[in-house]
Amino acid sequence: MKKKIALVTGGFTGESVISLKSAAVVEKTIDRNLYDIYKILIYPGDWYFLNDAGIKIPVNLNDFSIEVDGQKITFDGVFNILHGSPGEDGKLAGYFDMIGIPYTTCDQLTSAITMNKGYTKAIVDDIEELHIAKSLQLFENSTENQEKVVNELTLPLFIKPNNGGSSIGMSKVKTWEELPEALDKAFGEDKQVLVEEFVSGREFSIGCFKGKGNIQVLPATEIVSSKEFFDYEAKYVAGVTEEITPGRMNEEEVERVNRIIPKIYEKLNCKGAVRIDYFLQKETGKFYFIEINTVPGQTETSLISQQVRAIGMEVKDFYTQIIEEMF
């Protein structure tokens, strides 16, 4: 008998647009011989399934069920493709834990911690061969904090919302005159902001997932952007960024990255597929951790899909491994 899988998408943030695009790809790619898929849209105060007639069927939040044609549908598991809150920050994971439904992504604690870039970096900081850019975590957009940044950090800087995604609210600051506007932009997205020194290096993004009981590291994608940094436009607009998969690394670099990535996955107690962004510093080749995405995009231009295909695996089979790992 086919398993009934809820594909959850939507969300409470600006990333909901990307989530819907990801969900559309997953929905058409997933193996329908194995699973019956029900796309559940989650918005503030409005959780529903859209039937074939375009009618919204509300989700019963007591047990995360829906009623279709007079029949109650309960789910064997959840394929979570909801970027941002509540799908990536642990809120949804906590809800599913309480009602006893397995899901494809990290648990409540890991999801909450990894949404916070500053906390994540503090946890992975002691991993051998991994380096962290010098940074400050700000909890208030004040004159005192601006002075602290000027006194303690060196230009250029990256300013980013600590709990954000898809590079929304992110800026690169080259002069101190640009700092106030960049902080305003970041604080407009989040109450916590991370300010970190710029690391000059080649940028990579790499997928890692647990399938058939083993942690598998995918080939890294090298990001060569015509933009100043890998921002929202560079991520989601075709032609702005060159993405090279596998990325250009020598044998030693590949081996080192493949040592570090599983340690990050294990240290953060990850589940399902994650994507880790990093720099290899130009002068030294050192591995600098940028951030981790625990609900990586699955759009047509997403990096994970490119990397899966690069190892000769069908994306459909990749999804099957992710789903089966939760049972």
TrEMBL record:
Q: Which reaction does it catalyse?
A: 2 D-alanine + ATP = D-alanyl-D-alanine + ADP + phosphate + H(+)
Biological process (GO) annotations held by this record are: cell wall organization; peptidoglycan biosynthetic process; regulation of cell shape
Could you list this entry's UniProt keywords, alphabetically sorted: ATP-binding, Cell shape, Cell wall biogenesis/degradation, Cytoplasm, Ligase, Magnesium, Manganese, Metal-binding, Nucleotide-binding, Peptidoglycan synthesis
Q: Which Pfam families match?
A: Dala_Dala_lig_C (PF07478), Dala_Dala_lig_N (PF01820)
Q: What class of enzyme is it?
A: ligase
Q: Where does Mg(2+) 1 bind?
A: 277, 291
Q: What Enzyme Commission number does this protein have? A: 6.3.2.4
Any idea where this protein resides?
Answer: Cytoplasm
The record places domain ATP-grasp at 124-324
Question: Active-site positions, per UniProt?
Answer: 15, 166, 302
The UniProt entry, under PROSITE patterns, shows: ATP_GRASP (PS50975), DALA_DALA_LIGASE_1 (PS00843), DALA_DALA_LIGASE_2 (PS00844)
Cofactor(s) recorded in Swiss-Prot or TrEMBL: Mn(2+); Mg(2+)
What is the UniProt remark on how the cofactor binds and its stoichiometry? Binds 2 magnesium or manganese ions per subunit.
Name it. Answer: D-alanine--D-alanine ligase
Query: Which GO MF terms does the UniProt record name?
Result: ATP binding; D-alanine-D-alanine ligase activity; metal ion binding
Family recorded in the similarity comment: Belongs to the D-alanine--D-alanine ligase family.
From the UniProt record, give the pathway where this protein acts.
Cell wall biogenesis; peptidoglycan biosynthesis
Its principal location? cytoplasm
Q: Which SUPFAM superfamilies match?
A: Glutathione synthetase ATP-binding domain-like, PreATP-grasp domain
Function of the protein: Cell wall formation.
Species name for this entry? Algoriphagus halophilus
Question: Which residues span the membrane?
Answer: none
Q: Which InterPro entries match?
A: ATP-grasp (IPR011761), ATP_grasp_subdomain_1 (IPR013815), D-Ala_lig_Van_CS (IPR000291), D_ala_D_ala (IPR005905), Dala_Dala_lig_C (IPR011095), Dala_Dala_lig_N (IPR011127), PreATP-grasp_dom_sf (IPR016185)
Q: Which GO terms describe its cellular component?
A: cytoplasm
Which residues bind Mg(2+) 2 per the record? 291, 293
